[in-house]
Amino acid sequence: MTSGTPAEPWELKTPPGSSAYTMHRDDTVDPPILVCQVGSTKLTYQARAIDELHAWLKTQTENDGWVPLGAADEQKPAPAGSVEAWGRSEDNPVGGWYGLRKGYRGRFGMYLPPLLEELGLAELTHDARNNRMRAL
Fold first, then answer.
1. What is the three-class DSSP state of 83?
2. Which DSSP string corresponds to 111-128?
3. What DSSP assignment string belongs to 20-64?
4. What is the spatial distance between Cα 41 and Cα 53, in angstroms, rounded to a whole number?
5. pLDDT tens, position by position, for the chain (136 residues)?
6. Pairing of strands 67-68, 122-124
7. 3-class SS at 85?
8. Which helix (H) or strand (E) covers residue 108, if one does?
9. Phi and psi torsions of 115, nearest 5°
10. Is the pTM of this model over 0.90?
11. 99 Cβ partners below 8 Å, 6+ apart?
């Protein structure tokens, strides 16, 4: 596993395995952020999302803990009960979006789950559509 630094980012794939992207942690800013590079597009998320998403997943008990990812762009609604919905909910620990870049705050349910899997914190399905995750 790489260290997740700008010089050695995590090399990840979307849950269906159809697209590759990189992510790294930037601790030079306060608070620390995650920088997700998808082609020429850069998305940023609060780094605390890693621990807080993992903690939330541990509380999910229906369906053996499996939660739908529900990835959606910022402008589209997130499916209720999904990782995407939690990542933008007023009920999460930050009281709203973990995504930081206006217009690019969505896709939390697409790009964060593979990172949690890489870090050994979660298990994902890798189907063509309708993927789910649960805490380890």
1. helix
2. HHHHHHHHTTSEEE---S
3. EEEEEEETTSSS-EEEEEETTEEEEEETTHHHHHHHHHHH--GGG
4. 23
5. 678 999 999 999 999 999 999 999 999 999 999 999 999 999 999 999 999 999 999 999 999 999 999 999 999 999 999 999 999 999 999 999 999 999 999 999 999 999 999 999 999 999 999 999 999 9
6. unpaired
7. helix
8. helix 108-118
9. -65, -45
10. yes
11. 43, 44, 45, 74, 87, 88, 105, 106, 107, 108
Contact 57, 122 (CB under 8 A): yes
Check residue 77 and report its DSSP letter.
P
Burial of residue 59, with CB atoms counted within 10 A of its CB: 0-12 exposed, 13-18 middle, 19 or more buried? exposed
The tokens describing 115, both together, are 């990172």
